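just leaving the lab so this will be short. what follows is a protein written twice so to speak, once as letters and once as structure tokens for the fold. can you read through it and tell me how you think this chain folds. thanks a lot i owe you, the record is right below.

___
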Amino acid sequence: MSASARVRADACPGVFATHDAADGPLARVRLPGGAITAARLSALADAAEDLGDGALHLTSRGNVQLRGVTRPGLASRLATAGLLPSPSHERVRNILASPLSDVAQELASALDRALCAVPELAGLPGRFLFALDGGQGDVAGEGADVCWRDGALLLAGDDTGLRVPSEHAVDALISVARAFLRTRGTAWRVSELPDPEPLLSGVPGERTEPRAFATRPGLPIGPIGDAVVVAPVFGRLTSAQARAIAKAGNAVVTPWRSILVLGPLEAGTGLVADPDAPSLGVSACIGRPGCAKSLADVRADAARVGRAPRAHFAGCERRCGKPAHEHVDVLATEDGYLVDGAFVPVGELTETLATLAKKGQQ
């Protein structure tokens, strides 16, 4: 693990501390476990339409961002809807949970309550990430600082060998977070600590030989029993689409910019429900004109690409929103793109990515 540490201030946006983007203030709303009720989703849709750019932007941590929030009143609306249970902790409620695991989802709610009940944990860095994996291996591979995976405790993605039953999972994760806060120095992530082993001191459980777990990121697009998984293009969910989902019932926002809709969704929403849709393999940061640092309108360029391998388009070297799993890196330059480090003119992107996709299928 790297011993590097960041010394600049933690600038992760929230509701009270927004980010000044080129298209206006950006607010990030945390959804622990990704779970959201129909009423709360409707409230977010109203807020996006009345106060922002009219859309909900899904993040790679299963949260939601509102862009262009130039009008006041967002915090009061979210508080009324129950989306801000602890204003002091709102930026640290970063919790992933397996969307299809009832155990993981229940533990996510319990962890959120426990986290908000510990005053000092409001001081965690905004990038510190918890995960609760029901054994599917889906969220365990998403770069969490501490993850409970069906009994196994992982730090920065590595199995510690410590085994913790579900009834003690929340206490174990809270204990690790408190230890990290005491010992982190200037580190923001567990991966930046020279030795994470002291974080386990005091965590009850049985020790066994650490093992390498397989990960299976993502959730299949399409019907799953009585539910359906859909994806908004580039993670941009319009207010109308959000209301259609809310009409169907409760939902779970996933870290793969898809949504598990727990009810019958009406047709004609414009949401991707075909697992073979070309757009599913491509993600992109906001790009121009939303971000002043971006060197290109990456979403427009990505939209012109047909069949492609799993790829992420980024407008600058920060690579905002990049997936945690393997992908082709498509980085904008002043006059084209670097595709996994090799320069490609804009006009040749489609052919280049199609060739990579074909190679990946062989």
Residues 1-5 have pLDDT under 50 and may be disordered. The domain at 279-361 is CATH 3.30.413.10 (Sulfite Reductase Hemoprotein; domain 1). The chain has three domains: 1-84+218-275, 90-216, 279-361.
